[in-house]
Amino acid sequence: MAGKDGYSRRDPGGDRSLRFGLPTLVKVFACVLITLSALSLLFVGYISSRKADDIAADKQVVLLENVLRDRHNLMARDQLGLARWDRSVKYITLKFRSSYVIEDFVSSLWYDFGHERSFLIAPGGRLLMSAWHDEVDLTARDLPVGDHLRAIAEQAVARHLDHRTTIDGGFGQKPVPASEVHAIAAFGFAEIDGDVMLTTAMAIVPDDGEVALPEGDPVILVSARPIDAEFIGDINSQMEFEDLSFNRNADGLLPIMSADGKLLGSFGWKVFKPGADIWKIVVPAVFLLCGLLFAASFVLGRYISRLSARLEESERQNRELAHRDALSGLANRLCFEKALNDAADRLAHAPFAVIAGDLDRFKAVNDIHGHPAGDEVIRIVAERLREAVGDLGLVSRVGGDEFVILINAFRERTRLSLLSQTIISSVSLPITLSTGAVVDVGISLGIATAPESGASAGDIMEMADRALYTSKEGGRGRAFFAEDLAQNAEKVAVHAA
User: Fold this and answer.
1) Per-residue model confidence as pLDDT tens digits over 421-458
2) Which fold has domain 333-496?
3) Assuming Cys at both sites, which of 131, 197, 306, 402 could form a disulfide with 224, CB separation 3.0 to 4.6 Å?
């Protein structure tokens, strides 16, 4: 019905329908929006937790691989003193003397370095000697093709041939610093007498050139340590993995292969999963979203921000873990090498110095008080080095008892000498262990300045290692400058003459 104004009048029933229809639509829209928001947050939580768990698992595998590599390097550095020796070439390779092998060679491997198993393997895979602790079996026999010991020995032969050099009377091997012992040593795992063992092999070569290797392959020294409860406890003191174990199957997280590619077993542990913490945040947020649209939107943004912060913190911790030594808290080898390369790149504008250090009498601490005491000494020494160096440079731990310091603040010899004496004095102070025992260690230092000792990171590090070696040879507990190496060599030559 039309009114006088020409407009049609609305039916009151239509108005009622419209009034009741709009709130329903808003409620439906709000419910749909809340549901979509809740589902979105659940999806974000799922993806975030899965990603965080995957990153954590990968980083834990990398950490265990690095710890096993460190153990290989430590064992190889122990071998180096006996394998690179004229006496070993003379009484093992050139003329096999059983008394030397028993009384000097195997005895040192066991009593000085704790190598539980040791073997001598001649060319062609012939086993000359096998030892358990200091018990020596000199029964010679041929190892079958495919034997794990023979496989790792063949790898060590290949490493030797890559570094073999010609000397008077035959062949020798190019010298490498202890920090690069992996270049001449073969690392792997082997099944020996039914046990899976961590193994390291290297060629027996001359050091001073008084004797030389004949044509053909060298004799190989193989050292092995069982992967038993003691070994697992030792490596886990650095990582603190939950329920770390080694099983003779492939169900673990890190499979272990022999040198010829055979599966020997795997390490397994309860993986730390930060994703569970993420769910503790997501689930309350979802319930809160279902109450009120505005409150849900506010909570959603807040908790997504927290999730992102958690993920960033997890990634930051993982990045820091990759550049930090787990035991000492110092920079690790990866971090130091990056800093050294960066310093070498800026050498033209910012000269620097490198101080290589190696603890004296540290093995006695491990032998007498045990590896936990040795770890405690490493942590205390690391703190003393941090305090001594302060903001003058970067302190790093690159091996068992090996430390390297990159000094950026100065490179004057006088100031480096003063700093070195401060370091030596600080480290040499008595250390009271948590058990109440008092021990003392010292430190020997080798100092190389750039550019005097070289322009590349490798050259500078090599000179620092050579200076450290000379320092330890000269009586330990002192500092030696790489620039004095030539003068020291002349004095040795004059003395020898």
Assistant:
1) 999 999 999 999 999 999 999 999 999 999 988 889 99
2) Alpha-Beta Plaits (3.30.70)
3) 197
